[in-house]
Every structure is written in structure tokens, then in C-alpha cells.
Design brief:
mainly alpha
């Protein structure tokens, strides 16, 4: 059986790898990127470390985006989805990470990111979230099928009375991403980091307060 021809991206990555120590972290990230389609979890994990620890600067890049585009050959949006999907799996589905089976790949990272959005940003109900999760994790639906279902449910929310929890959840998610990204930025004034941390705490308290208010209204209506 002949080998599949390599893409220009794979040849580019291998050319860089030839100049590196196989034991180095930079080499390991590139090696994982070569196996991207079958091991997105490993790549998401490694890219999160590269971003948060600022390794891309040690390797000659001005930004994490430049590193991803020029060395790993993936777009900024793809890198963001990979890292967010990995963080979400680590937080919400740790058992899937520890029970990985080479014969049963994990869900598409794009579908996992939709699951994250449903949980953190789009205000899906518990039942809607459970149905979406079932289609991704248990039924192993294709990403186009999952995306279609996600859009249908999200569109239904757009016609309903705005949920005050949604903008708070979305802001909290963005603030947490900013806090993680700032770790890799050198010499950020301490007061700036403190402001972000305080903002996260404020949003968490606001979300908790809104959750309590919503629960109280439901009990009063029942």
C-alpha cells in the first residue's frame, strides 16, 4: 500500500522538525500537529500551554496567532476552537479524556465547541443541552448534523424573551479567556490582571444572583 501524499503544511512542519531536538517541547507540539485530525485533544492541550506560557515568543514569533498560522499552519479561529474545546472537555467531560479509546475517536472539536457555546453562551435549557450532548457523545453524529441542530435550537431562543443570564455567561466566558491569554503577555501591570480577576468575580456573583432569582420565580409560579 502506498503512502498518502503529504500536504504542503505537513512538509513545512517536517522541515522545521528536522532542525529541532526531538525531545524539545517545540518538536513535540509540531509532531502532534502532524497528527491533528486523529488527536485534536493533544494539540488543543499543547496549544493552550504554548499560549498561556508564552512559548511562541521563545521560538521567534510576535504573537500566538503568528505562531499558529506560520508554524502549525492553522488559522486563529481554529486554534481558538481547539483550546476552548479542550478546556471545556477538561472541565465538563473529564471522564472522556481519561477513557480515550484509539478505536473510538473523541467527538469533532468543532462539535465540542458548539456544546461549550450551548452551555456557556447560548442559554440552552438543561434538556436542550442534554439532547445536543447525546447527539455528539453517544450517537456520534457528524459535525454538519450537530451544527444544523445547534442552529435550530439557537434560532428558537432568538425569538423568545431575552434571557438575562446569556450576556452574563458570554461575558464571563470572554473574561476567563482574557485571563488565560494574559498569562502569556510579558510585563502586564499587576493592576490590569487584578481588574480582570475582579471582573470575573463580579460576573460570577452576578450570575449566581440571577440564577437564584430565576429559581425563586419558578418556585413561585409552580
Amino acid at each position: 500500500m502506498t503512502d498518502m501524499p503529504q500536504s504542503s503544511g505537513e512538509r513545512h512542519i517536517e522541515k522545521i522538525m528536522e532542525q529541532l531536538d526531538p525531545e524539545s517541547e517545540r518538536y513535540q507540539v509540531l509532531d502532534t500537529a502532524k497528527k491533528f485530525k486523529s488527536s485534536w485533544v493533544e494539540l488543543g492541550d499543547k496549544l493552550l500551554q504554548v499560549s498561556s506560557r508564552g512559548h511562541f515568543r521563545e521560538w521567534g514569533y510576535q504573537s500566538f496567532e503568528d505562531y499558529c498560522v506560520q508554524e502549525i499552519r492553522i488559522k486563529k479561529g481554529t486554534a481558538e476552537k481547539l483550546t476552548l474545546a479542550y478546556r471545556y472537555m477538561e472541565k465538563q467531560e473529564p471522564e472522556l479524556l481519561t477513557q480515550r479509546n484509539p478505536l473510538k475517536p473523541l467527538p469533532d472539536f468543532r462539535s465540542v465547541d458548539l456544546l461549550r457555546q450551548a452551555k456557556e453562551e447560548k442559554g440552552f435549557s438543561d434538556d436542550e443541552y442534554a439532547q445536543l450532548r447525546k447527539s455528539i457523545v453517544e450517537e456520534e453524529r457528524s459535525h454538519p448534523t450537530v451544527l444544523k441542530r445547534f442552529k435550530e435550537v439557537a434560532a428558537g431562543h432568538d425569538t423568545e424573551e431575552p434571557d438575562p443570564l446569556i450576556p452574563v455567561k458570554s461575558s464571563l466566558s470572554a473574561a476567563r479567556r482574557l485571563d488565560t491569554a494574559l498569562v502569556g503577555v510579558p510585563e502586564v501591570p499587576a493592576e490590569f490582571r487584578d481588574n480582570v480577576v475582579n471582573l470575573i468575580l463580579y460576573l460570577e456573583e452576578t450570575l449566581q444572583s440571577l440564577d437564584i432569582s430565576a429559581s425563586s420565580r419558578m418556585e413561585a409560579d409552580s
